[in-house]
């Protein structure tokens, strides 16, 4: 399908009807996509607190009342059916992947939608800054750092970062551009000196693909939404539902609606 | 005392020893002061959600684990003793004011510290923008608007705003300056046209004092921390503790440490 031209509601409808189960990258261009985490109400305060304490990796776009599946940032949507693929975790272990969670979602569960990096990558490209992973058609390189997130309750994990190589002047401009997007990870958390944050080999990311780094470029690191997945697994709850990597929730919010200024 | 020169820890120590029970305005210049809300853990998720959904009136500086009274933004401090005056609400009604809460605080209670406007008023003055309430030695004018906050659980109330009159050019500059201070209410929520947000008479604020408005000035409105107090009262919980108006918690965080850029 030509998903770039369809509206978020149209794409969610196709997904709901089982007509699209692939990644959402590039779909509904200009609209905010989100990471999904669903967990039992008994742990919702601690997880919300984890997100509040770690806003760069876990920026909160929407939190729903227990049992509710219609986000305020996408009226008419249903989080049980409108993502192409979900992961079910039991006791902190990936149990299975499914295409809807109609039979799994329970009334006592709370859904969190967290910002992802798609919005700011688009802003970088519009500012004329090359984004290597997109140029090379790869997943962004992601690394587990030696920096701990601030824990909350049972949720505790290191910060995960994504990396984009850039020329130093572009790195400065990228810091300015992404500052505006504080709900999709905001400004970088680090640049240059990967060993300072515990990264030994840029060519061997913990998640995603390695990308080409030219000799006149430095690595620029942003907080990454995968951190929320690691936090959720760390708590080893009886049941947690997330999106599958790359298979995000597409909201009705335009990228420019969630900039700070 | 010459509180402007003392460190936050020194002032908290004087307050703890009962040697200061007045307002904290102007004390520890350059350090962030905070609104305090303490409530039972059973309602903590809903109140945290209320703050997340309404970040302009209720910007979160710190949320403590249940039973903890030492904020991360002020190591060594004790929220039971280090504010000059507290209010105790029972079933949504003000029951009494006290100078410490040693006997009231319980292990199942969660403490929230929320940003207040002192930091950005200092930034406005440093930018050469007159702040009328400070010039006239008055409390800022505050109004209950016709704009509802997004409710969460039992917490539901209208947005409360503070008003500072300014010349239009200063209003634009003030919007820029306060945007940086997103954890102390950020940019204005409204300017000019007070009737549009339900304010009938600027000379009759719902809280605080009226201030002089010159004929070449327009009213500029910021989201106000009093909103969090109204939210708490709206829920009519068995027990809630807050600071007394003007008697804030003084943190170790410098104003410039919590700017966004």
Brief overview:
The structure is a homodimer of 261-residue chains. The first copy, chain A, is α+β, with helices and mostly antiparallel strands and 261 residues long.
Explain this structure:
The structure is a homodimer of 261-residue chains. Chain A has 261 residues and is an alpha+beta fold. The first copy, chain A, has helices spanning 8-16, 44-53, 118-126, 132-135, 168-179, 226-234; strands at residues 31-40, 60-63, 86-90, 93-98, 109-115, 141-148, 158-166, 190-191, 218-223, 240-243, 249-254. In chain A, strands 1, 2, 3, 4, 5, 10 and 11 form a seven-stranded antiparallel beta sheet that branches. Chain A has a four-stranded antiparallel beta sheet with strand order 6-7-9-8. The longest helix of chain A has 12 residues, at 168-179. The first copy, chain A, is globular. Chain A starts with 7 loop residues before the first helix and ends in a 7-residue tail after the last strand. At the A-B interface, helix 2 of A face helix 2 of B.
| Percentage of residues assigned to helices of chain A | 10-25%
Mean pLDDT over all positions of chain A: 95
DSSP E strands of chain A, number: 11
The biggest beta sheet of chain A reads: 7 strands, antiparallel
Sequence stretches where pLDDT stays below 50 over 5 or more residues of chain A:
none
Task: Report how far the terminal alpha carbons of chain A are from each other.
Answer: 34 Å
% residues in beta strands of chain A: 25-35%
Briefly note the structural class of the backbone of chain A.
alpha+beta
Give the largest chain-chain interface (CB within 8 Å): A-B, 20 and 20 residues
Number of helices of chain A: 6
